[in-house]
Batch of 3 targets.
Target 1
Amino acid sequence: MDDFLWRALIGGIGVALISGPLGAFIVWRRMAYFGDSLAHSGLMGVALGLLLGLDAGLGVLIVCIALALVLVLLQRQRQLATDTLLGMLSHTTLSLGLVALAFIETVRVDLVSYLFGDILSITPSELYWIWGGGLLVLGLMAWLWRPLLALTVHEDMARVEGVPVFWVRLGFMLLIAVVIALAMKIVGILLITSLLIIPAAAARCFARNPEQMAVLASGLGCCAVALGLWGSMQWDTPSGPSVVVAAAGLFILSQVWPQARRSR
Amino acid sequence: MMATEALLAVERVHLTLGRHPVLQDVSLQLKPGEVLTLIGLNGSGKTTLLRVILGLVAPDRGQVRLRPGTRIGYMPQKLPIEETLPLSVARFLTLSQRATRAQLRHVLVETGALAVLDSPLAALSGGELQRVLLAKALLREPDLLVLDEPVQSVDVAGQFELYDLLGRIRQRRGCAILMVSHDLHLVMPTTDWVICMNQHICCAGPPEIVSQHPAYRQLFGIDHGRVAVYHHHHHDHKHDTHGQVVKPEEPH
């Protein structure tokens, strides 16, 4: 196998491993739309990075974190429902990113690679980012695990029992922002949410407790990355979408798997 | 009795949500080991008052004082079950505090739900879920149990049993109980004090007194010919001063 293929596989697996536990919480907390909106704002981050001469990943990270903070603040007002807010912000930031990129004439931007990922062009330094950042995210996730689970089940009850709800929720949102910045290279900003939620959804029918579901989701995510890459090589298809199609295939398999029904 | 220091004191609490006054000048006291029930119709501010007491909502004016070191066990009105989250009862009980297997068994025996210790939360019946929620509150060894409609989605026989259980828990543990109900007659044997609410406090006292109080009887539309209409009764009509139902002027 060629070097770039190994890098693609190792990078993809790194992202899939983090996606498992975060994706499980996104499914439990019904935050798929939140993840999508945050990811869409990533394009603005790319533009910001290019304008300021920063790394695109860093730009995405800054914009995603800023947007997560704005959302937390906006959720405190009650005039607009959260999904309306998310819809507005998601498409406004995506469009702003596209408009800003059009202004940057000096640089030719490969838009498609940002939107749908470019896993085959991962550089060794990007690998360090993915694995270093990924391990950090996993560590923080382990630290937040119990309080986050408590507030997912019942927020008021968790608060009465002493969970610092606001900070835990904020921490989780920031972790999602980090994962989006890390995963952009793999599947692109339009497809990131699918890598987070499809493996978790597929893991649901086999899991008997929350931790099992997170670990299974990580495992299924890794399978999807490997299968997608293989398919992409085999049939010369775009790599990011191939990974998502593989994940969807695994989900469908999980639904018809005979053991899945019983263990619910 | 008067000498005992209050466990909980609510002093002249006001709260407005949006443009609607939800709590107006509400004061109450609860001493250690006492049972106090808030009753009122839907939207009368009972649950909001609980939330203020629990510190989940800050009042506009007034204050809530808890005796320092008071441990609260809280049982919410409803636990929305997220089907995608695989959670057993044992795991649910230990979400925000650790407990040994023996402690879990002990508290579930106390609430009569030992059989479901390892069942998935999503598979419980309404009554079982209430008993598990109660067990979770008890696991904290509370000085004060705060229960929001503890018999929700439980059949009538089960409701009596649950209130009976609360009475035994209070006797055994000596903890104070503050609960919300919309049925005075069900809680009568269990509660020491009743506060009848409709944004403000309409009347308060021991249950026998409140059940005879004109403000309570008017609020719940008792005294108009039929007996025992307090249950599932919608207050969609007006009364005159004698408690007779006044016909609405216009059909809605």
Target 2
Amino acid sequence: MFLCFCICIHERPPAYTSTMKILNEMTFDFDITGPKIIASAKAAVIDNITKIILIGDDGVTVDTGKFFVTVKGRNFIISEIWEGRLELEGNIEGIEFYQAPGTDPH
Amino acid sequence: MRGTSRESNFIRHRVRIRIDGYRPERLLSRALEKGLACRNVICHDETEIYCTLSMTDYRKLKKLAGHGYRLTIIKEGGTRPGLRSLRMNKLMLCGMMLFILFYLLQFCFIREISVLGCETIPEDELRTILREEGLYEGCPKTFDCERIEKRIFDAYEQVVWTRVAYQGSFVQVEVAEGKLQQQKVLNREKPCHLVAEQDCYIETVRTFKGRAKVEKGDFVRKGGILISGKVPIEHPTYPVDEETPKHHYVHAEGEVTARVPYYYSIYVEHSATEARQKAEIRKWMKKNIPENAEILNKDFHFEAKKNIIKLYGMIETRQPVGIEKEISIDKRQSTGNEKNAD
């Protein structure tokens, strides 16, 4: 089974996201400020990263400006890092977001 | 544009490096800021990671690393190092060149000759003719296909169609044989009948010698007598004995024209085009229908089966019919009963 999901963290209120219109979707697609993750059980792509915080065998943490994103799992290989995009391969077990210190997402 | 350049950089020259130092991810972050592409990053431990970069990016990363990190090239790849190693290994280069040369040379010679369609012609004999014309396994491609075809035609009377064609180093010789014309009875004094060589409907009968047994519109089966060589003696003006034969034998002669139906059934490959199907029918006609036949009707059907197409139908011709069939007379019998020699 190939389960793929995309998470977009943005500045809009949650009420807007539930009834997402095409215009809003396009706005989110072209948003280059927030983190974007496309993930499946074996691979993940994180967009708009600014810094790599930590690379370990059981997880990769990156900074996207407003949030830190941690992808947890095993046997990670970063297949490519280039132009704000990080492509990750391995067994993904979880994804965490937390606010970067000293930033306010809203 | 930039993506293409990055990819071509990797193809041209890439290096697998080991980065040693305190928190190597910081160096990767700096590389990310500068737009350097890193691939296959594997974390070995907290102070050691492995990654692949293009040679141009590696030089930039080395400047970024300064004295804080140690960069070691483990492996090189890409076209440039490959060519360099080839240049170093001249013997292998010569070997490869020789291999390519041999590979290309084999296309200049004939590897295999396939002969198809030989029924009465011995294949060895045909191959001897081909060899005489310079076509044999291992020969260069200097032979003339048309000349070989002509030679085959000249050598065998029964050949009605032939084709010599090659594709790459494979030659195919196809031969279609017709029926040899039966030798006519040379002795024109010997009594004989004129019989039908095929089932036919009679159109005209002109008898020169003998007695016509058929008339316009009659259907005659193969072997049926058209003009009989046994002529009865009618109303003699002189007295005859009972023992005297009441007929005499002649060499039957005449011209008989008839409508002859030909039924054909040919199988062709499923992928065969319409032109190929027509060519197959023409080939069949050339093989089975005499040249002097006038085609009256043509009937064409095709039936697509699983992997094959069946072409079938009927062709009606108007053509002269009749072949001579000798009459052997048993002279011991007083009444002159004849026995046909089959």
Target 3
Amino acid sequence: MQPTHRSNRILLPAQTWFVYLTLVIALTLSYIPTGRLPGVPDWVAVVLAFWCVREPMRVGMGTAFVFGILVDIGHGAAMGQFALAYVVLAYLATSVSRRVLWFPVLQQALHVLPMLLLTQGIMVVVRLVGGGEFPGWWYFLSSFSGALLWLPLSVLLLLPQYRPVDRDENRPI
Amino acid sequence: MTMSLAGHQAPPIFKRGPTPLARLLVFVAVCLVMLVVDLRFRYLEIVRQALSVVTHPLQLVAAAPADFIRNATVYFATLVDVQLENAELRRAQVQAAQRLLRFEQLERENHELRRLLAMAQTTAVHSVAAEILYDAPDPFARKVILDKGVRHGVTAGLAVVDARGMIGQVTRVYPVQSEVTLLTDKEQAVHVKVARNGVRGILVGSAGNRMEMRFVGTDADIRVGDRLVTSGLDGIFLAGLPVAQVISVDSEGEAFHKVFAETVAQVERTVQVLVLGPEAPRAPRPDPATELKEGEGRAPSTGRGG
């Protein structure tokens, strides 16, 4: 696979354990108690969308469902709230993955933004129907910070795949 | 079919189960069922408890930075601040001590009088001191997380009070933490009575930091400034905990007063709290049929007095 489809560089294949490790790290980050601070990105959603775009054959709605349930439990949210939103996010991200990777990273982030907004929109609708209270428009700020996060993530999460194919005795990694 | 790598249409021999759209619909249906079962019937608490075994270690790791910041503010508090606070606490303690002396005597007296009148004894109070760690991450509800859980004797349903009055109710317990729904939450209701004359009603969280007292008939005597305390009739809270103060009463041609109240406790700002509940589990509700047969002519006892 290439960094983007326009690139000539061929990357190493992604390791399955690394994909799940990053998802678990994102899950841990999402558990950091930040209270009502607006604009804290939804780490799991962004990392999930990233792997759904990069590796649609491995990460999809099943993974989204499992991690959604784990976020639901950790946040004390309604069971299925995050799961529902993430499943829809995974569906959209996998279905646009072939298109998105033709764009440079900034425009990829612009593709991801509406998906993240929809994810949050689904959760708002679900909870308002369930008798919750509207959290205010600042709530949607986290989609924007999440989309910004796409830029560093698309370097960080691909780092292991940038390694050269042949091993060098004098190089640590 | 659309789920293939860039530009390659997957040939039929590599077909991988149902189409993405079909799988999406299945997952969405499962999620919707879970949501209804959880929000409407609260059946999934056991599943939540079981799976929280998986998430708990990660939560501990994630809480470390927050703990560090909270502790750091304590380390860097100045000596002057601490001395001022200490003086304030000493003054408060002296005031509390003399009231406590009278309280012990009154409690003994109350006990004796109740025995003479053959009334049900007031239950002993079970209390756990706790600290509010942080706001719960769920932005759709007003909840906070306490640093005490099942291991410290906290159970779901207990009242949570600060020095001035009630702030909320424990709604979910974890091994070493618990979740408290604040009184200002839309879904949180308390059965209260007016301390002055015992007019009863149900207090529900409302927009802003206010609460609305519902089902107070227009003939009831209720005024601005009245103190509202828990009635104890719900069988969950102890009777007589201060809850709120009436700030407006409006009765324009309705069957019920429109009563708004403000909490007496500093619901959104307090840190040190007490989890309060009756010591013994409450007696099961009497069956109305047997009640009629056994105690004809007698007024049914409420089980717990004020």
